[in-house]
Amino acid sequence: MIKSFDLTEQYKKLEKKINSKVLEVLASGNYILGDNVKFFEKKINDYLGSKYSVSCNSGTDALILSLRALGIEKDDEVITTPFTYFASSEAISLVGAKPVFADINPHTFNINPKNIKKMINRKTKAILSVNIFGQTCKLDEINTLANEYNIAHIEDCAQSFGATHNNKQSGTYGEFGCFSFFPTKNLGCFGDGGLITVKNKKAYNLLLKLRTHGGIKRNQHDVIGYNSRLDELQAAILAVKLPYINKFIENRRSIAKMYFKLINNDKVILPFVDKNSKHTFNQFTLRVKNRNKFEKHLKQHKIPYGIYYSKPIYKYKAYEVYKYNSMPMVEKISKECISIPIYPELKTNDIKMICNVINEY
User: Fold this and answer.
1) φ, ψ dihedrals at 130, nearest 5°
2) I want to staple 189 with a disulfide (CB 3.0 to 4.6 A). Which of 46, 193, 211, 259 is the partner?
3) Cβ neighbours of residue 315 closer than 8 Å, sequence gap 6 or more
4) Burial call 23-54: b when 16+ CB within 10 Å, e when fewer
5) Which H helix or E strand runs over 359?
6) How many CB atoms are closer than 10 A to CB 133?
């Protein structure tokens, strides 16, 4: 039976190294903010080419801490995409600000810089871009906009670890890059985990305080902070997996290449890949006109799938108070998108079976 995602396969390949490291942490008696966290943060800096990094509890917390570090609060506005997981706009709301949505590019599914420009006003304090499905936004254009209007740029890289734009890593364009290590991500831990890349030392020092109840030293609380620390176990596991990340991503790209080659059905639109970006295919997302009919076809042949995302964020009950205007591109894409299995350990025979079923539709 084909699975949407199989976390056990990757664990089996790294089982001895992971188990050894976990037992080492357990025996140490040091479980919070120890050497493993420091080591992992250094290795992330080396991999991404970032100046500083601060690990934290989750990708959502990474966004919240970054917004707080910018001083964003009540009556401020942050421009973001309506086509992503709820956490992106939720983080904006949790610091008291208002999410302002800009429509997407229907090909890349990412926020469209031309639409961002239309939404900027005197209340705008930041742009929160989201690199959806493993493909970066036009990050250079967004940076140019942010600089022109003297506003901040935060990258939500929850789905784009290892992706590049113009050969530069996602998470290194904005003032902050926010990553999630949820188990199904390109680089995933065995629970929740997150990390923020930072350019500015002052912001870095503030983030260190924000993740630990507002202070670095015991009984020192300079600001109102959070309990948002990546624990030693998760840091150790991530450090074991990090040297393999390029191989994991190359496997994803190889699977995507097979899909591009083997899927041949004019009722199905394959993902668009921006020539300036290196896509990591955290998801392989198709577009179909009659999605309900396509779903039934996949179910009938026991092919798993996912729908990310079935409606724009502004249509959720949580945001009905704002009465947002509808946006044509995201309305269209949210009715057509459907993702098929893609993960590094997906077997060739399963890929071929998936393609055959799609071609029969």
Assistant:
1) -130, 120
2) 193
3) none
4) eebeeeeeeebbebbeebbebbeebbebebbb
5) helix 348-360
6) 24
* DSSP code of residue 319: G
From residue 128, alpha-carbon distances to 84, 184, 287, 325 in Å are: 11, 22, 25, 19
C-alpha to C-alpha distance for 355 and 361, rounded to whole angstroms? 10
Q: Would you write out the chain's pLDDT as a tens digit for each of its 361 residues? A: 899 999 999 999 999 999 999 999 999 999 999 999 999 999 999 999 999 999 999 999 999 999 999 999 999 999 999 999 999 999 999 999 999 999 999 999 999 999 999 999 999 999 999 999 999 999 999 999 999 999 999 999 999 999 999 999 999 999 999 999 999 999 999 999 999 999 999 999 999 999 999 999 888 999 999 999 999 999 999 999 999 999 999 999 999 999 999 999 999 999 999 999 999 999 999 999 999 999 999 999 999 999 999 999 999 999 999 999 999 999 999 999 999 999 999 999 999 999 999 999 9
Write out the two tokens for 359.
């071609």
Helix, strand, coil share of the chain (percent; to 5): 45, 15, 40
Nearest CA-CA partner of 136 in 150, 155, 115 = 155
Query: Which residue stretches of 263-310 are H helix?
Result: 291-300
Total-model pTM:
0.96
